[in-house]
Amino acid sequence: MAGPTESRHGMWSNRWLFVLAAAGSAVGLGNIWKFPYIAGENGGGAFVILYLLCIAFVGIPIMMAEVLIGREGRQSPINTMRHLIKQHHRHPAWVLIGWAGVAAGFLILSYYVVIAGWALYYILQMGSGALEGATAEQAGALFAEFLDSPIELIFWQTLFMVLTVYIISRGVISGLETAVRWFMPMLFLLMAVLLGYAVTSDGWSQGVEFMFRMDFDSLTPDAVLAAMGQAFFTLSLGMGAIMAYGAYVPSSASIFSTVSIIAGLDTLVAVVAGLAIFPIVFANGLEPSQGPGLMFVTVPLAFGQMPLGALFGTLFFLLVSFAAITSAISISEPALAYLVEEYNARRGRVAISLGVISWILGLGTVFSFNYWADVNVLGQPTFFDFASFVTDKVLLPIGGLFIGLFGAWALPKTVIGAQLGIDGGFRAVLWKLLAGAVAPLAVLVVFVNTLLG
Q1: Which CATH number applies to 15-451: 1.20.1740.10, 3.40.190.10, 1.20.120.1730, 3.40.1160.10?
Q2: Where are the domains of the chain?
């Protein structure tokens, strides 16, 4: 028995909206604060070449498998796996792919909205001119005081969660589609404006040198692992979001070409983010850093020293917020779709319930920066570190590993052929090799290396 041709939750109007939605899911905070830095620190252009190879041989095959599975099942990740297991007589344990994705997405959402709320706070700070002419000590103190205030953190967490719940409650067409129609073009426009601003700065050549110098001597085994890990994590794989979005993809859309465009857009955003940020950082004689220190201390400090810095700093944090909201709505979708299907509930009510529970869980992340800063959780320094470890280091790699294996080996050749448009021969063998062996092995290597420290 073939699967349904359409999802009960609705369908993307066309494949380009799926491209924007999936790119929005992939483009998040990691593109802006992580990729540019690790590229610059691990060989520049040499690392970028290695990263692109990892995208081609690790990221794209697993993403294709996730879209393939989602489009074949046309349901939430959990019920998609249940349906395919029953239809093709596979072992019931495969359903853990769906459960792992939903659990990871729900846990990620709880802390993601807290961090994303910081970006909203900095829109206000930059727009008000609070950081104009600020010293490094003042910029650092502002961020430290903000983290030390649970009330402020909860306010911005709540605001971002309300915005997320409102969008996802409206469904695929009125909610998800409308959001990506607006937010993604605006994100690209803001990136272009910030890039143009960076080109005119005194640090442009230094920023380009930092990111693109061809230093092959820096391609150590750790750099290879970093490239493989970034290629996997940057595409939002393993958390069920792409599988859920794949359920809404029209049957006529080519999975390979669509996924390749998504991967290309995600990489482009990461590269342009680096070219927009680092010239401004270098122009002010600052040292680049990775993570929150780059985004919430170094970058605001840099903008605060430049002409029109308040304006362009505000635009930068608008960009960060757009990237965060498109990721947040995709992270929410697997759990939301499952609860709607399982309990035949109204989407709006489920969205509110999901948001409230996730918000409560997110308080653990809020307090990790103040009240509970010294509270270890199962060997991790804080609750936030624990939640991040469980998702990034355990659930997502396991999910991605088994998605590749299921998409390559557990589905019949007829299903794979129909979904991917391949009729056997070399392309079928290549699919088995990449999705069923090379990509899972790479994820396994990253997974084991991470667990071993």
Answers
A1: 1.20.1740.10
A2: 15-451
